[in-house]
Structure formats: C-alpha cells, structure tokens
Write a structure and sequence with these properties.
alpha+beta
C-alpha cells in the first residue's frame, strides 16, 4: 500500500503514523463502523476532482443513522475535510477513505456512550482488480457464501461488520484461482460481488440487480444514468446465475473497480471472453465524466487544486 503524509483525525491533520487507536476500541471488536470509498481523478483541464463526493458523504451519514451512530459532522463538514486531506497530501488523484467508528470506552456489544470518532485517509490507487482487467476482464466464481438476508444485517449500510461476509467470499475465490466472487442472495438470485455491483447485457438490454439485497452503489447509479442517456434500456430486475452464464456481456461497477468486465463465471465464458462493445462504450463515457471531459455531468465533480 502506498502511504501519504497526513490523516485527518477528529478535525485535526496529524502524521500518518500517529493515527492510532486503543486496542480495546469498540469497532475493532464488534465491527461498529461505517465508511466510504471515494475516488479523486486528474481532469483534462489540469485540475483535480472528487467524484460524487457529496453523495458519498451523505451515504455515510445515512449508514450511521441506520447503525444508531451519531457522527458529529454534517455533509458539508465531511466534504471539506476530504478536500483538506487531499490538499495537505498534495494528492491530485487517488482514493479517499472516510471512516467513522465507535471508539474506546465500555466493552460489550452495547456501544453505550462510547465516542464516535472519524478519520479520513487518502492514498494513490490504480485499478483495483488490475490494469489489464479493464480491457481483458476478470474470472469470477459463484461463492458458497450467500449475501445476508436483509433483516440479518442492514444491507443499505456501508458498515464494517457487513464486510465479514465479503472477506470470506473473497478469500475463497482467490484461493480457488479466481479474481472475484459473485454472491447470491438467500433466495438464489444474483446479488452483488464482494465490493461491487453487477450488470449483465443481453440482446442490447442492460440488467442489474434491484435495490433489494445490495448496497446501492454510487458508481452503479452513475452507470445507469450514463447508459440511459446513451439510449440503452436499463432494467432493475432479479436474475439467476444461469441467466448470467448466457449473457452477451457482464461487468462489475464500484468506486474501486470502476467498470470492470467479466470474461468468465464458473468456467463458463461470458460473451466473447473480453470486454464487449456495450461495456467499452460505458467505460469510455464513464472516464470522460470523471475526468471532467463531459460538461453534462459536471455536477458529479467537486474540483480542487494541489501544488504543482
């Protein structure tokens, strides 16, 4: 992992190595934390911009609301803190990780009056699943672990505890030689991946899992908007693993994954076995949008400047 110099911690900029917590921090034991993954991009005009920053900060506060965590910052304060952290680290493109967690205090499942602390870290980060994956696509395995029932854990929160499910699925997939895991819901329908939403394309129609067992991805929402603006039909509809097998194209979306094509699922080649024409079209338009090269989506970008 590439580090940077400073981390924003409860309103103060401190050196990276000094951003520490007690080993009895509540979140470390019980997963009581919410977070976001956000990207900053270098734009075609020489500036930098964070992609849908306000939406990410709003989703983090919504996650905290569901988790009964009182974050002492509003959207504007979180936005300002993210920009401040990027600037102080002179990072014109990279990854932004805000995290709020229940801190040190009383032990036990009930968090009680333990403080809620917030950090923001930034660092350089390229293609999450590898640079070649954006063109060649990745190999995926259907996980033996199902996505949780919606009343087991709150699927609309980006909370730390939820990701134990993803960790188990990811380890299984990697140890079996795959790049990523596809997760089904408890009824056997395609849900999402360990950290990405799922799309398939068949006969020119784009289909994605509805907002049921999934985290409502901000990149997912952006891609649906782009696709519809480009004239594609996009359907939010449940689908099965065997429908995935016979898709013409398939891809994952996410802040880290961006738009990553899927070339194989469970030893079945998907379409031509590489990024298809619809996927490539969406990739081109997505990167134009995030790099400030399409004024139609200027509202998705929060611009800032760093030292040259």
């Amino acid at each position: 992992m590439q580090t940077t110099q400073f981390i924003w911690f409860d309103g103060k900029i401190i050196p990276w190595d000094q951003a520490q917590v007690h080993v009895l921090t509540h979140a470390l034991h019980y997963g009581s934390a919410v977070f976001e993954g956000i990207r900053a991009y270098a734009c075609v005009d020489g500036s930098s911009a964070v992609f849908r920053l306000e939406d990410h900060c709003r989703r983090m506060l919504n996650s905290a609301k569901v988790m009964r965590m009182e974050i002492p910052y509003d959207v504007d304060a979180l936005v300002a803190a993210c920009i401040e952290t990027l600037k102080v680290n002179n990072l014109g493109a990279g990854y932004v990780r805000p995290l709020s967690f229940v801190g040190y205090g009383e032990m036990g499942v009930y968090p009680g009056d333990n403080p809620v602390q917030t950090i923001i870290a930034v660092w350089p980060w390229g293609a999450y699943l590898g640079a070649e994956a954006l063109e060649k696509g990745i190999r995926v395995k259907t996980s033996s672990f199902a996505r949780m029932h919606v009343n087991t854990l709150m699927s609309k929160t980006k909370s730390a505890g939820n990701y134990v499910n993803s960790i188990l699925a990811k380890i299984e997939a990697k140890e079996d030689g795959y790049d990523e895991a596809l997760m089904l819901d408890v009824n056997g329908y395609v849900s999402e991946a360990t950290g990405e939403n799922v799309f398939i394309v068949r006969d020119g129609i784009i289909k994605t899992t509805p907002w049921t067992s999934i985290l409502g991805g901000i990149t997912r929402d952006s891609v649906m908007t782009l696709a519809r603006d480009l004239g594609y039909t996009v359907e939010e509809q449940q689908f099965t693993r065997d429908e995935f097998y016979i898709a013409d194209e398939a891809f994952f979306t996410g802040t880290a994954a961006e738009i990553t094509p899927i070339r194989e699922l469970d030893h079945r080649q998907i379409g031509a076995g590489h990024a298809g024409s619809v996927t490539k079209h969406l990739q081109r338009e997505f990167f134009k949008a995030v790099q400030g090269d399409n004024p139609k989506y200027a509202g998705w970008l929060h611009h800032y400047t760093v030292r040259q």
